[in-house]
Amino acid sequence: MSKRFKVGIIGCGIGRSHIVEGYLPHADKYEVAALCDLDETRLNAVADEFFVSRRTRSSDELMSDPDIDIIDICTPPAVHTKLVLQALAAGKHVVCEKPLTGSLAEVDQVRLAEKNSKGLLMPIFQYRYGEGVAQAKRIIDSGLAGKPYAATAETFWRRTADYYDNPWRGRWATELGGVLMTHAIHLHDMLTYLLGPIERVFARAETRVNAIEVEDCVSASLLMQNGALASLTATLGAAEEISRLHIAFEHVTFESNHEAYSPGDGPWRIVPVSDEVRQAIDALLADSPPVGRRFNGQMEAFYGALVSGAAPPVTSEDARRSLELVTAIYHSNDTHSDVVLPIAEDHPKYHSWRP
Ligand SMILES: NC(=O)c1ccc[n+]([C@@H]2O[C@H](COP(=O)([O-])OP(=O)(O)OC[C@H]3O[C@@H](n4cnc5c(N)ncnc54)[C@H](O)[C@@H]3O)[C@@H](O)[C@H]2O)c1
């Protein structure tokens, strides 16, 4: 019989969605064995809902429990690094919500700990999982799309004062950033997943929508390593919420669906330049395996890595890449300059991007 991994989840907000979308549909692969939250009412409500008998307010208890294989960290951002390091040191496999850490120095510290741990670490980037993004990835990787030209990534979401009625949100010390860190990070990950690494960044960031410390509007201009140009726009003040990725290659233009929280779902608009390209795409996609959406797809892919010992489907390198973009955007905004990637240890914002 194949191994069923026992999961302990810390944080029962988005942690509940990990259960519903990620673990329950794969009940042959995972058992949610324990839940942890500082808020006892919330802990009991979620544990009752999913019949989880082991519940605790102490994350230390889960870390030292030999019965738990995977620690899934769903706490507010500022505690991620500490818990990830603790879980890796305990030899656990680790799933961690975004952002993985609060600085590039911390990502590098985590990556070192990962090398020395028997556990696998998978940061969450569930927007990569869906039929639309999977088809685009397959076409691009096959070479059929040709030379990449230009892209836009729009995160037009809406957050009002009631959303910030949660003590960790809207503050540098606890949210670690604004729309860039908490919201647009998903579409930006999807962009680099499809277009590869970034070479240069010029950006502006402002707080225009809510009375918060962190930014809620961003505009950035990117030069990708493959020569393509990309524009990122994000706001938390949109009347209509959409996420949209639009990429023009030599032979194919891709446009994601506009669902704010699942732009990876199919169908995407995939527009070939000719009938010949259309036929080649149809042939390529004819035998595409089905792919789960969001946490469902990501947890399924993680299981493959856990049983085979392969690298996780989303890696700490991916997390570093996303936080390098965040660091570059803040630095460009502060200095009104073009920032060249990669960002190394001698960069002024390597140890913190916060003001
Ligand atoms: N991937 C996504 O689509 C997505 C969506 C929402 C949130 N998130 C991320 O998930 C994380 C949590 O966000 P949320 O919206 O669920 O927040 P939340 O405030 O709703 O829930 C966080 C929970 O963690 C608990 N908690 C805090 N510190 C703890 C600790 N040390 N030990 C145990 N429990 C602790 C809190 O009591 C709270 O119940 C954030 O990093 C956020 O960016 C990701």
TrEMBL record:
Positions of the Gfo/Idh/MocA-like oxidoreductase N-terminal domain: 5-120
Protein name: Gfo/Idh/MocA family oxidoreductase
InterPro entries noted in UniProt: Gfo/Idh/MocA-like_OxRdtase_N, Gfo/Idh/MocA_Oxidoreductase, GFO_IDH_MocA-like_dom, NAD(P)-bd_dom_sf
Superkingdom as given in the UniProt entry: Bacteria
Pfam families linked to this entry: GFO_IDH_MocA, GFO_IDH_MocA_C3
Start and end residues of each GFO/IDH/MocA-like oxidoreductase domain: 134-251
GO MF: nucleotide binding
